[in-house]
Prior knowledge:
Layout: E1 14-19, E2 24-27, E3 30-32, H1 39-50, E4 54-59, E5 70-74, H2 78-88, E6 93-96, E7 103-105, E8 125-127, H3 131-136, E9 144-151, H4 155-166, E10 170-175, E11 185-192, E12 195-203, H5 204-220
Parallel strand pairs: 1-4, 1-6, 4-5, 6-9, 9-10
Antiparallel strand pairs: 2-3, 7-8, 10-11, 11-12
Helix pairs in contact: 1-5
Cytidine-5'-triphosphate binds at residues 18, 78, 96, 98, 100, 102, 128, 130-132, 147-150, 162.
Amino acid sequence: AAHAPARGPLAGAHLLVTAGPTHEPIDPVRYLANRSSGQQGFAIAGALAALGGRVTLVAGPVALPTPAGVTRIDVETAREMAAAVDAALPADAAVMVAAVADWRVETAAQKIKKGDAAPAPTLALVENPDILATLSRSPRRPRLVVGFAAETERVIEHATAKQRRKGCDWIVANDVSGDVMGGDANAVDLVTADGVEHWPRAPKGAVAERLAHRIADALKD
Ligand code: CTP
Ligand code: CA
């Protein structure tokens, strides 16, 4: 079908967003997961599309509708997410909101059985690739790379250290000690080269719109 040309400050730009948790299989019927609902990342993808951007949303397993105008790629594991991000390049900006599992499990080919008086199994964990750090150092790095930092204490300090370690341009410092994960509102601090901006607690949709406008402004220069 013919599409009307996109309008808005992000017309002509390709924006890449990751969102949601990843699931790391333990065996064919079990997995490791986390409490990310995908809401904040989906809202950001929708807000970027609403500004006229072409948006690719790489989504972990979540129960959310695809925002209008967004191309969605569903993945399950961190490694699948890494591959989908790579396949979606080039992009003008990337916003990595996903709560990527830090570790995967050495997966058993068959369902692990309780057995007769067998000891409880232990899970051997293997570190997953860091998608944000890899992208930040890639020769195909987007012009603007934005990370999220989920922290429960010393939020700004940890987030600033993360931004340096991972080599992203901005990091959205997110205090997840309360009801943020799975909740409707978010309070964040935006850490950029210019300093730290505190954004008061607001619905995730409002945080998304504010960030989308900031990204549009940054890509203009
Ligand atoms: N991230 C990623 N790939 C990973 C882990 C994290 O792309 N394997 C990204 C997240 O999407 C987020 C940022 O890195 O944008 C920070 O994630 P976070 O979990 O807060 O940081 P970690 O470096 O994993 O540190 P820790 O969980 O130990 O605090
Ligand atoms: Ca992590």
